[in-house]
Design brief:
Strand 20 and strand 21 form a beta hairpin. The protein has a 22-stranded antiparallel barrel. Strands 18-19-22-23-28-29 form a six-stranded mixed beta sheet. The chain is globular. Helix 7 packs antiparallel against helix 8 (about 605-615). The protein is mainly β. Helices cover about 5% and strands about 50% of the residues. The protein is built from nine helices and 55 strands.
């Protein structure tokens, strides 16, 4: 739904249209609040009207934090849906360093942190895949392969308003079960005044001062300039434009402890049974703990169902989680972003309003990574098993053994480009009918380049480690990690181009708004919308990308490479805020501590120098990033076409002595998905005896294959607001919502399973099944949503709101066998494939949300927001959870009995809390902010079927500003003031997987306004 204001004097229905109860609000309050709430031009017109009628009324100008909170209260009060919003008096005045941080100040919103800042946003504790994001009423794209939006891509200084719709009406674009996040940029004529602004913020990160950063200096900056102007002509025409540009060049310091992730095949539940010497930590010979001495490899705890017992094969056997490695990572970082926002508004007459807007953002993130890696899976007989100490969930607390150690490094860069364009034409046909046409284009492109290097020890060294308060600490016997000559074995470099993605949405929308102005109904709204989403991820020689790899054996040449590229360890005090002292302790054979090699550093090298030297050592080697290609088995090409139509009635009347308002309507959504993939070309060859064989074509070509799916959904909605008294409001909403599967999960990769008995005489005998990934026929997750709220508004600075909500989901994730048709050798053959589908299971979410704001006369004010939610939704881990499969006849069989409890809704947090204490007097304005989010399950983009938990965290922020005069203001802002790290657990909570230490981020700025 477009948030654009109406431009005529007749009463218009909108999300923030003033209700009849607004007539009692004091003129000063209208002047102080409604002028910044451009969501409703009607509010602006009422303000102007009141000013004309009562010219002697004193207008009290409210600015800063107080004004922002007043606007939030006004937005919530005047909406017909459950909405929380944030607006600024002027472009550039949103009180946050990013859109993510701005959204976090809204009750019920929380973020997922990456690189120390807010990125993906959850609403009411529900993950971003259940939300939708619109910019100026249009869908926004991203480069992640999912439907969330990386809000760090958009500068808050160039966004005018943000709002979160927690209930929906029929006019809104479908896609948000948890809610819809709406961003709006300035519309020049509606802005109504000339404004030139400039701002420069210097960035200083204390943790960066300890880093010798080859990519970025200690000080960074972000500079913003914006200009808005309007021109009126004698013939009644008017033109307005706005222009904003921002350049950001900062560092994003990050120190890490890492374990192997569960997204691949490098983290295992290894058996920890002293009576079993064939595998696990007590194996009779040295080897990887997930491998058997006599038997199969890559086994570990076996969750497969034993048909004789009906239990897992390894049922009741103790185990411990161990990955292929545990490591420390030091980062040199750089984050550059250029953004341009532009808008042009033309009103040739009172009947026409034409708006064009564009948003352009180019962001490049770079990291020089230096890793110290301890390989971990190998069990040393008589040492590892007897000395192993674990916690209740199998997380290791103490480990001993012999393994290799590596000094590794990566040079990483990610470039992401966003382009958004929109054209909106509104025509007032007559006093009753308005027609609105909207055309939109949004595209995000992403590309990642990476160099990965490795130098390792020639032999296996003895070491142990103990879990500290936050991270492990290692003790090494007779091994100095700062001596680069210890890492001369098996030098290797990999040069990758990967995750090359394009995500594009093209849409058109035609709406009408008809003024009824009789009885209880005010307007009838309706419209149609068509859109086409396309997502392409290019494949290569290494799945989702391409790789060139070069190696160099041990010897003098390897030592020359290492010594020639060696650099001093780039950081002092590495991980000091989360460690219990030295992360490495070097001891001799008698246990005496050796100074060299003891501390928090290791031997490092310049990554590009290392890679180029290793490439040069290979005859004919060329250092270059490989290309990706479209016609490749790793390519994902998804097109999603959607057609939607809606009809909605708005009402505003008096009943039983109370003013009531709201809307009800129906939205119908039809979606068709087409997915293209590629597989090797095969020829069907018949032997002299008539036996068929499938032979890969010698032409080297690939066959283009196509799959798809479709669905039609009906989305009714109803919203009711009761103005119970002048300061008490009751609200209710019911709607049916839908959340579509991520585009990356709608791919179509298929390969054939063959009968190898050499007896097949027909195609149906030869081909027995299909392996593959991606399901373009994945159905959306549907829900019924119910909201009820009590809201008390004692004055324009105060609110107490309490909401109860209930969501009933229909749909979970399960493996199911279906039949798909393929053309092979000119014949159509129907084959079974087992894939992930959306099932018909029902689950519930019950939640409570409350907001409180109050300001004292001495200038001190407070604001609190809290959300509690509980759910019975279950998300099973695909490797160590309970796994079921449903055959083509609908019969369900359990395949695995898991050892980990299921996760909840992806991104679900039970508790979300935000608070703000502010003080504003005269030109001085300061605020302290605290934000808390309890633990949640965060899927991986690359493999969203494995459980990863982000631990609960509370983050402090602070900002202050002083208005020197009407033109100049100085600002100071701090993010993550007390250096709260991000901690993650793999498979189960308390199995530590990763700790990211960001440190605080400080900004000092000077702004100019004319």
């Amino acid at each position: 739904m477009s948030l654009k204001s109406s431009k005529n004097n007749k009463m218009r229905s909108g999300q923030f249209a003033l209700s009849p109860v607004a007539k009692w609000v004091r003129t000063a309050a209208i002047a102080g609040v409604a002028s910044s709430c451009v969501f409703s031009a009607h509010a602006q017109q009422e303000q102007a009207k009141a000013t004309e009628v009562e010219p002697d009324v004193e207008i009290i100008s409210v600015t800063g934090t107080r004004r922002t909170i007043q606007d939030q209260i006004a937005i919530k009060r005047e909406a017909t849906t459950v909405v929380d919003g944030l607006s600024s008096e002027d472009i550039g005045d949103l009180p946050a360093l990013s859109i993510g941080e701005a959204l976090e100040s809204i009750t019920g919103a929380a973020s997922h942190r990456e690189n120390g800042g807010a990125t993906e946003i959850t609403i009411r504790g529900l993950g971003p895949f259940l939300s939708a994001t619109h910019i100026n009423g249009r869908e926004a794209t991203n480069g992640s392969g999912d439907r969330s939006v990386n809000f760090s891509q958009f500068p808050s200084e160039l966004v005018k308003k943000v709002a979160i719709y927690k209930t929906q009406d029929a006019s809104m674009i479908e896609g948000g079960v948890a809610g819809v996040i709406a961003l709006e940029t300035v519309t020049p004529l509606d802005f109504g005044k000339q404004r030139l602004q400039g701002e420069v913020k210097l960035n200083y990160n204390p943790d960066e001062s300890n880093v010798d950063n080859s990519l970025q200096s200690d000080l960074g900056y972000r500079g913003t300039f914006s200009y808005v102007d309007q021109f009126e002509f004698d013939n009644g025409q008017a033109v307005g434009f706005s222009f904003g540009v921002q350049r950001q060049d900062i560092s994003q310091p990050e120190a890490e402890y890492r374990s192997s992730s569960p997204s691949g095949s490098s983290l295992w539940a290894c058996l920890n049974d002293p009576t079993n010497t064939n595998e696990g930590f007590y194996r009779s010979s040295a080897g990887d703990c997930e491998d058997q001495v006599n038997g199969s490899n890559n086994q570990g705890y076996d969750t497969e169902i034993d048909p004789d017992t009906g239990k897992a094969v390894s049922d009741g056997t103790p185990y411990a989680w161990t990955g292929s490695s545990r490591s420390f990572r030091q980062n040199e970082t750089s984050d550059e972003r250029d953004a341009v926002f532009f808008a042009f508004q033309y009103q040739p007459s009172a009947e026409w309003d034409i708006n064009f807007d564009s948003q352009i953002s180019d962001r490049t993130q770079r990291e020089a990574r230096h890793d110290l890696i301890f390989l971990q899976k190998r069990a040393t007989p008589g040492v590892t098993g007897p000395s192993l100490v674990t916690n209740d969930v199998g997380g290791i607390l103490h480990w001993e053994g012999e393994e290799r150690i590596e000094s590794a490094g990566e040079q990483f860069s990610r470039e992401e480009n966003y382009r958004g364009y929109g054209l909106n034409i509104e025509h007032t046909v007559n006093d009753r009918l308005t027609i609105d046409l909207d055309l939109a284009y949004s595209k995000t492109s992403r590309e990642e380049l990476q160099i990965s290097n490795r130098g390792r020890t020639a032999g296996r060294n003895y070491f142990s480690w103990d879990m500290g308060d936050n991270i492990p600490h290692f003790t090494l016997t007779d091994f100095d990690v700062t001596d680069i000559s210890n890492f001369t074995d098996s030098l290797r470099t990999r040069i990758d181009r990967e995750n090359v993605r394009d995500n594009k949405v093209v849409s058109a929308r035609l709406d009408f708004d008809y003024l009824v102005d009789s009885g209880m109904f005010t307007t009838i709204q309706g419209g149609v919308r068509t859109s086409e989403l396309s997502f392409t991820q290019f494949g290569g020689t290494n799945g989702n990308g391409s790789r060139n790899q070069f190696t160099l054996g041990s010897g003098a040449e390897a030592l020359d490479v290492l010594q020639g590229c060696q650099i001093d360890f780039p950081e002092s005090g590495f991980l000091s805020s989360v460690s219990d002292g030295n992360i490495i302790t070097h001891v001799d054979s008698d246990g005496n501590v050796v100074d060299t090699g003891t501390g928090s550093s290791w031997a490092t090298y310049d990554n590009e120098c290392f890679s180029q030297a290793v490439v040069a050592s290979n005859e004919g080697g060329v250092f270059e990033y490989p290309e990706v290609e479209y016609q490749n088995a790793g390519t994902i090409d998804v097109t999603e076409k959607t057609t939607a139509a809606y009809l909605m009635a708005n009402y505003d009347t008096e009943m039983f002595g109370k003013f009531i308002r709201g809307n009800f309507g129906l939205r119908i959504v039809d979606t068709e998905v087409t997915s293209i993939g590629f597989r090797n070309s095969f020829d069907v060859v018949t032997s002299d005896t008539g036996v068929l064989e499938l032979v890969e074509s010698d032409t080297g070509t690939l066959d283009k294959i196509k799959g798809g799916g479709d669905y039609t959904k009906f989305l009714p909605s109803f919203n009711l607001v009761v103005d119970y008294s002048e300061d008490i409001l009751l609200r209710a909403g019911i709607y049916r919502g839908m959340s579509r599967a991520d585009p990356s999960d709608l791919g179509y990769s298929r390969s054939f399973q063959q009968d190898t008995s050499d007896t097949a005489t027909t195609i149906n005998d030869l081909l027995v099944g299909v392996n593959g990934s991606g399901n373009p026929d994945t159905q959306p997750l549907m829900s019924w949503n119910y909201d009820a709220a009590f809201e008390w508004y004692p004055n324009e600075d105060s609110i107490f709101a309490l909401s109860l909500y209930y969501k009933q989901f229909q749909g979970g994730f399960q493996k199911r066998t279906v039949i798909e048709d393929f053309v092979v050798g000119g014949e159509t053959v129907s084959l079974p494939i087992t894939n992930s589908v959306t099932n018909d299971e029902e689950s519930e979410i019950l939640g409570l949300e409350t907001s409180f704001s109050y300001r004292w006369d001495n200038g001190i004010g407070v604001k609190f927001g809290y959300n509690y939610a509980d759910t019975d939704f279950e998300f099973e881990d695909s490797l160590y959870g309970d796994t079921f499969v449903t055959d083509v006849d609908g019969n369900t069989t359990q395949l695995k009995e898991g050892i980990v409890e299921p996760g909840s809704v992806p991104g679900f947090s039970k508790h979300v809390f935000s608070s703000q204490l502010y003080y504003q007097i005269g030109g001085f304005d300061t605020a302290v902010i605290y934000k808390y989010r309890s633990e949640y399950f965060q899927p991986y983009t690359s493999n969203g079927t494995r459980l990863r938990y982000v631990d609960s965290v509370g983050v402090w922020e602070m900002r202050a500003s002083y208005k020197i005069n009407k033109h100049f203001r100085v600002k100071a802002e701090a993010i993550n003031l007390f250096s709260a790290p991000k901690s993650q657990d793999f498979f189960v909570e308390d199995n530590l997987g990763e700790v990211n230490d960001y440190g605080p981020r400080l900004f000092l700025g000077l702004s100019y306004k004319l």
